[in-house]
Specification:
Strand order of the largest sheet of chain B: 5-4-3-6-2-1-7-8
Number of helices of chain A: 6
Radius of gyration of chain B: 47 Å
Strand content of chain A: 15-25%
Number of domains of chain B: 4
Number of helices of chain B: 18
Helix content of chain B: 25-40%
Oligomer: heterodimer
Structural class of chain B: alpha+beta
Distance between the termini of chain B: 120 Å
Radius of gyration of chain A: 18 Å
Number of domains of chain A: 1
Shape of chain A: globular
CATH superfamily of the largest domain in chain B: Histidine kinase-like ATPase, C-terminal domain
Helix content of chain A: 25-40%
Strand content of chain B: 15-25%
Largest sheet of chain A: 4 strands, mixed
CATH topology of chain A: ECO RV Endonuclease, Chain A
Order of helices and strands of chain A: HHHEEHEEEHEEEEH
CATH architecture of the largest domain in chain B: 2-Layer Sandwich
Largest interface: A-B, 59 and 43 residues
Largest sheet of chain B: 8 strands, mixed
Chain lengths: ~230, ~625
């Protein structure tokens, strides 16, 4: 079995992406890994990223999307979301890292987070931590665009949280209704420049996460039929 | 270096180049020193409110305060005569003489805040004293009063500031994002409220309460609001000398930061950024904090107004102490006292039981995690594929006679030698695979050559046809739908033939111009290259259409099934499994090989013993 993921061609229409995502519903991670010719890692530590990469490869997401969405031609971001057997999201969902150095100049309208959340394909992965990664199953995907109310909520959260960061008051994980800010760094020692009263200062890099309660409402509101 | 003065017509510096600035420019310059951003306005107006005895102040922000700031208080208010005066520079109720500067007990005193705010915005001030029946409302733009009218309003003062820096676009260009300005404004409100120690403040933006401190909030509640939920606990200590006193509210030293964001200093209720105070505090913590770390602490210093000069910074963020060494020792001493008492140790022992419980829970989680790891290491996550070694089959004869059950086998092929009696394939002995595709088998009286690909195709065809005849061909959804591109007339043909393809177990869906997704295939063909299968079916449809065949008729169905069955050949053709041969041969026993099927070819060839002997001249 190959160990390198072979990506499908990128989808050319939203319909194509939806059809591909719908095809994953009900299949196990193992089945998809088999179809893509890779092995499922045994270590659960690597599994989380693996399932996301697997889904990206299957759906034809861009290999190096960088700051752009996973499907640049369609302006769609892909988010795999682990669900408990009850259907509740198991954890918060990482959205994007925060450009700390620009935190005092960034506006919501042009923010990285807003771009990332303009159009998201949510792909549930069902199975708690007690379920072997290979046996977790993909659920029905949902293409989501924020409603005006959701956008307002995200905007208010973003402004509150970004403002705190820009003012040098790093918010705790308790701040925010829909959003949450948590450290997000490749290593424990990573630091990035952020504004401070006395000029730029080094601080722990942070990332935006969507709270599980918010993603739960998105999935609940999803249409129940294709 | 300064720019050279304008030259006269003779090239020499001209005279009279120094001019007095007009009032508007002077006011803008003055305002620039006080009003740096929306947060400055929030700070100044809140200080005014608390100086006026307000118990609760509500601050409303729009667009980070750049579009609108409204500050409403329940303080003493102003009378009709005082309202217009409040907008004049150096008009104040808090100071009369120069010596009063060293007896200041209010937060403001210069009488320039409102004037500065009004100079760079559109301002509306509404105020009413308890003894007045009506309120007075003043509107101004760019510092010029536009109207003063009597209106109905509750006791207290409301100041609305709109279009900040509308007349100083250069300053406006230096504003940060809405979020940043909003956060600074909230922080400013928090600082004033912390310093006041008694008033309450509510800050609202975008329909959300960003700060909500009741006038009844204790020092601890205010402390938690400032220092954030990361602070596990706060402890207080006070210290005084003959004239000054310090109160310190701090978290245990185990909670610390890499910057000084957890430090607040107040002198007589005024927030200050005073490095001497910071040094004194850190010196006290030096023994318990790693270098570069700062504690979470709020320091309130109270001293006679004459001992501190608060008039040394435009925004009053810095002060000068008459006896800085004394203040230094006072602050450092308060820290030492707190660290010596270490009240958090007592608090910690009372929480020990709870912590023990958490450790137990953690141990349980670790054990569970180990068990999972063992489970994952323990073996394959999937059941082993069913299998077994090649089974020995009793040798067959081609023409029957001597079957295991003792019955006579059917006569078999009546037309020639290239047929084999039903029920006899299972008894052939496979000897091997020749030319990568020909299964060479031995019977008692012949050598039998089976075209493996043809056999696979035929078996797949038979299964598909049987399922079709029984009602519906079982499908399997492809985890990766195959994307098939079409062109021109093909697109229309495929779009119109989805129902036809569905009858033979294929589910095709249009996903864009000239693109289809093959979402499901017959279960039997789940391992085939679905994209190739899709393309071949479309080619078959085109051939049938060109030949004028009814696509829903039996002939078309047979041809489509025959084409589809080719997928079974490619699906399995690459895999050579000696173990699978007996099963493959046995499966052929159920097939009438005399009958031809679309896209099929002969499955079996027989060399009789006589023919083989003839090859050797026997």
């Amino acid at each position: 079995m190959r160990s390198k993921l072979v990506r499908q061609d990128p989808p050319t229409t939203l319909k194509e992406l939806e059809v591909r995502a719908a095809a994953l519903a009900g299949h196990t991670v193992l089945a998809l890994a088999d179809a893509l010719g890779v092995e499922v890692p045994r270590e659960s530590r690597r599994a989380k990223g693996f399932v996301g990469q697997l889904a990206e490869a299957a759906l034809g997401a861009a290999a190096n999307a960088g700051d752009g969405p996973d499907f640049p031609a369609l302006q769609v971001e892909l988010k795999t979301i682990p669900l408990l057997a009850s259907g509740r999201p198991r954890e918060s969902t990482f959205c994007c890292s925060i450009q700390m150095a620009r935190s005092d100049r960034e506006e919501w309208r042009s923010s990285r987070l807003r771009r990332r959340l303009q159009q998201v394909l949510w792909l549930p992965v069902i199975g708690g931590r007690g379920t072997a990664v290979a046996l977790r199953r993909f659920g029905r995907a949902t293409l989501w665009r924020p409603t005006p109310v959701e956008e307002q909520l995200l905007c208010a959260d973003w402004e509150d949280l970004m403002g705190r960061i820009a003012a040098g008051r790093v918010p705790s994980a308790h701040h925010g209704v829909a959003l949450q800010v948590r450290p997000k760094a490749p290593t424990r020692d990573a630091r990035s420049l952020a504004p401070g009263d006395d000029g730029p200062r080094l601080t722990l890099p942070l990332g935006f996460y969507l709270r599980a309660s918010f993603t739960a409402t998105i999935l609940r509101a999803a249409p129940t039929s294709d | 270096m300064t720019a050279p003065p304008p030259a006269g017509s003779d090239g020499r510096p001209a005279d009279g180049v120094i001019a007095l600035l007009d009032d508007d420019v002077i006011n803008c310059i003055a305002a620039g020193e006080v009003i740096e951003r929306p947060a400055s306005i929030v700070k100044e107006l809140l200080e005014n409110s608390f100086d006026a005895g307000a118990r609760l102040v509500q601050v409303s922000l729009e667009h980070g305060g750049l579009a609108r700031i409204a500050v409403s208080d329940d303080g003493g208010g102003m009378g009709k005569a005082d309202v217009p005066r409040a907008l004049l520079y150096h008009a104040t109720s808090k100071l009369r003489r120069a010596e009063d500067l060293f007896a200041i007990r209010t937060l403001g005193f210069r009488g320039e805040a409102l004037a500065s705010i009004a100079a760079v915005s559109r301002l509306t001030l509404t105020s009413r004293r308890p003894q007045d029946g009506v309120a007075t409302r003043l509107t101004a733009a760019g510092g010029r009063v536009e109207s003063v009218v009597a209106v109905g309003a509750p006791v207290g003062t409301t100041v609305e500031v709109a279009d900040l820096f509308f007349n100083t676009p250069a300053r406006r260009a230096f504003m940060r994002s809405v979020a940043t300005e909003q956060a600074h404004a909230v922080e400013a409100a928090l600082r004033v409220c912390l310093g006041s120690g008694r008033g309450g403040v509510i800050v609202v933006a975008g329909g959300r309460r960003l700060l909500d401190l009741s006038e009844r909030a204790t020092a601890f509640e205010r402390g938690y609001a400032a220092l954030g939920p990361k602070v596990p606990a706060l402890f207080s200590v006070g210290r005084a000398d003959h004239a000054a006193s310090v109160s310190l509210l701090a978290a245990p030293p185990a909670a610390s930061r890499a910057d000084s964001r957890g430090l607040y200093f107040f002198v007589n209720g005024r927030y200050v950024r005073e490095r001497m105070l910071q040094r004194a505090l850190l010196e006290g913590y030096r023994a318990v904090l790693a270098p570069g770390r700062s504690p979470f602490a709020i320091v309130h210093l109270q001293l006679p107004p004459a001992d501190v000069d608060v008039n040394v910074h435009p925004q009053k963020l810095e002060v000068r102490f008459r006896e800085p060494e004394r203040i230094y020792r006072l602050v450092e001493g308060a820290v030492s006292e707190l660290l010596t008492a270490a009240p958090w140790q007592h608090a910690a022992s009372s929480r020990r039981l709870a912590i023990t419980d958490r450790v137990s829970a953690l141990s349980a989680r670790v054990a569970l995690s180990d068990a999972r790891a063992r489970f994952n290491r323990g073996g394959p996550m999937l059941p082993a594929p069913p299998g077994g070694g090649p089974r020995a089959a009793p040798q067959a004869t081609l023409r029957g006679g001597g079957g295991e059950d003792g019955r006579e086998a059917p006569a078999g092929n009546q037309k020639g030698e290239n047929s084999i009696a039903l029920g006899r394939f299972a008894r052939l002995v496979p000897l091997g695979l020749a030319f990568e595709n020909v299964i060479v088998c031995a019977a008692a009286d012949a050598l039998v050559l089976v075209d493996r690909d043809a056999a696979l195709h035929r078996l797949a065809y038979e299964r598909l046809a049987a399922a079709r005849a029984a009602g519906e061909i079982a499908r399997t959804s492809l985890v990766l739908p195959a994307i098939v591109s079409t062109s021109g007339p093909q697109t229309a043909l495929v779009a119109a033939s989805a129902a036809v393809l569905a009858t033979v177990g294929f589910e095709l869906e249009a996903i864009g111009p000239d693109r289809f997704a093959l979402r499901a295939v017959p279960e039997d063909l789940g391992g085939a290259d679905a994209a190739e299968l899709g393309r071949e079916l479309i080619a078959e449809l085109a051939v049938l259409q060109a030949a004028g065949v009814d696509l829903l008729g039996a002939a078309a169905t047979a041809r489509l099934l025959g084409r589809a069955a080719l997928g079974a050949v490619r699906q399995r053709g690459g895999a050579w499994s000696p173990a699978g041969l007996p099963a493959l041969l046995a499966a052929l026993d159920g097939v009438d090989l005399q009958r031809q099927v679309p896209h099929g070819r002969p499955v079996v060839r027989i060399l009789s013993a006589r023919e083989v002997a003839a090859l050797f001249g026997a």
